[in-house]
Amino acid sequence: MTQRLRRMWMTIATGIALAMPVAAHATTATAANDAISTFNAWCFKAGLTADRMRANMEQATTAPLPFALTFWDVSLEPVDFKPPLGVERRCEVAFDGDHTDKAIDALRVQMATPPIFGSQTELPETHTPLPETALIEGRALPRNRVAIVHVGLRDGQTFMAVDRLFTNWKERVQP
Asked: How far apart are the first and last CA of the chain?
């Protein structure tokens, strides 16, 4: 291999090596943006089954989703596990990296956008902050409902969650 050809290959290889972290960062940032915007667009909407929620989110982003989705609503369809005590519905997304500040900022904007997502209330006994919780808040909803919004880090991933409690959640959590 000639000296000139060798230098050209080294330049190309160096360029590729330098571009890889940038591409990985862009992919992580894109997945985070997709997760945050899709969470805010769909997780506050009632009346969706797990299949419908996934389809809506995939239509808004890509299939398969570039983030983890956990969704269930026992008021609409049965589940094959025991949901947390008092929780009727859960919508959660999780994605790589620490994007908690951005997630909280976007969540606060979403909750303040009409129709406003309830008002802040005491955190129900069904939920407690985790060690890496960045935000956890009870929300008083119409018709005497309560929801909990939760943002934090878990195993190197940002998560955003909203749980809706049963109307009679206090009776369900009593021993």
From this structure: 78
